[in-house]
Fold this sequence. Notes:
The chain is mainly alpha-helical.
Amino acid sequence: xxxxxxxxxxxxxxxxxxxxxxxxxxxxxxxxxxxxxxxxxxxxxxxxxxxxxxxxxxxxxxxxxxxxxxxxxxxxxxxxxxxxxxxxxxxxxxxxxxxxxxxxxxxxxxxxxxxxxxxxxxxxxxxxxxxxxxxxxxxxxxxxxxxxxxxxxxxxxxxxxxxxxxxxxxxxxxxxxxxxxxxxxxxxxxxxxxxxxxxxxxxxxxxxxxxxxxxxxxxxxxxxxxxxxxxxxxxxxxxxxxxxxxxxxxxxxxxxxxxxxxxxxxxxxxxxxxxxxxxxxxxxxxxxxxxxxxxxxxxxxxxxxxxxxxxxxxxxxxxxxxxxxxxxxxxxxx
Length: 334
């Protein structure tokens, strides 16, 4: 009876807590690359395009299993019968290709996020300079009234590349232009939100709610988190403004918009593309990123397009993203 009660209680837990509890109760043994490949084969992953020997070499020299295996979440399993629990139409080559594409995508997104971060700081500082109610010091005092961040700067001064800047303001207030040089992007998002909430009449700045999507993408890309991961999972808190903007794109249907904006990486990439195309001022940078996006989405990602014809999660997510790129970076009437 106790066993049944425990099992019923376990099944009432959210999926993420079930996974965490399983990992705690049943830790996995460390396996060699050969053992991992054999285990993948037992799970229904095929080695028709890439041999098992080549897969073992790849896992030994170029990638590690945990990251590569994450992309399995984009594939369904047989629900019943002799093949129950095994993956449907999944070859090791598909996982390898997804990991390679994801790497290129992370590199490009990180560059674009850094471009936006710089541009947002420029926009904020210029707006403060033209705000008659601001002197560039007031907003910093309001944001950091106890100077806790200023003290943090001092604690990090010895190892900071901005040591001279930190020491310059060691016993005085920071102006916004110096403060922005020292804070991380997450802190900048909160500072930006504070300013927008305080001065609601400022009209030329993007809404602060967009910044958190950029922060999420920036952090995920910088830490090499998988982006093309669990595309069937729809758990994003959709930004109403970006949804409204995308609703005016003629090539994207309402059902498609509702479906794919619920996928966290796609939602955040949509915000990234919108912000970049509308607020980054450098013509050279915009031209470079337009070229980079074309090479990745319309050339590199199509290199082995036959791998994914049977996976509607991947193919339809790809089509949705290309429509966003075409609109924000190639369509004149935005």
